[in-house]
Specification:
With 172 residues, this protein is mainly alpha-helical. It is built from 5 helices and 2 strands; from the N terminus they run H-H-E-E-H-H-H. 66% of the residues lie in helices and 5% in strands.
């Protein structure tokens, strides 16, 4: 049975690639601080990535857009995808992911709180609008009663109510 030389070459290259991968996996890969993906953050100066500090085991972001954090996470994810994470990088990747999950949970809780506040404010607004309508209706009834006595009469209480409703809001 004749063999195709091109197929034999492809098989040899495949075996060689497999061996190189195995050798690379056993070697300790140096840790790099630059992402291996096409991140736009690569073009940013180091000062744009500064702004994080560590207090104890908690990371705090100070006036940054998260570029350094994303870069570090992209490096770890890229290395994990290639299967070349060092023993120290696995826990670091987990720490980054847990940090993102905590941030997400805190943001979700904050969104829930803000929704409750917005709903409460809307309810208060509707209540105030209904109360205002009732006060205006009262002033109209008072004026109607006064006009039943004299055609051009204005009830003094209704005049005070209208003046109060038209007055600019008091400063707190």
């Amino acid at each position: 049975m004749p063999t195709d030389p091109a197929r034999e070459i492809v098989k040899a290259v495949d075996r060689l690639t497999t061996q190189v991968r195995r050798l690379a996996d056993t070697m300790t890969t140096p840790v790099t601080t630059e992402p291996t993906t096409g991140s736009a953050a690569l073009c940013q100066p180091a000062t744009a990535r500064a702004g994080r500090y560590t207090h104890g085991k908690r990371h705090h972001r100070v006036d940054d857009d998260g570029a350094a954090y994303r870069d570090a996470l992209l490096v770890l994810l890229s290395r994990a995808a290639r299967g070349v994470l060092t023993p120290d990088e696995g826990p670091l990747l987990r720490q980054h992911v847990e940090h993102l999950l905590r941030d997400r949970d805190q943001l979700a809780a904050r969104v829930t709180t803000l929704k409750h506040v917005a709903r409460s404010n809307r309810d208060h607004h509707h209540s105030a609008a209904r109360a205002l309508e009732r006060v205006q209706a009262l002033a109209d009834r008072l004026d109607a009663d006064a006009r039943s006595i004299a055609p051009d009469a204005v009830h003094p209480v209704a005049a005070h109510i209208r003046a109060a409703l038209n007055a600019p809001p008091a400063e707190a």
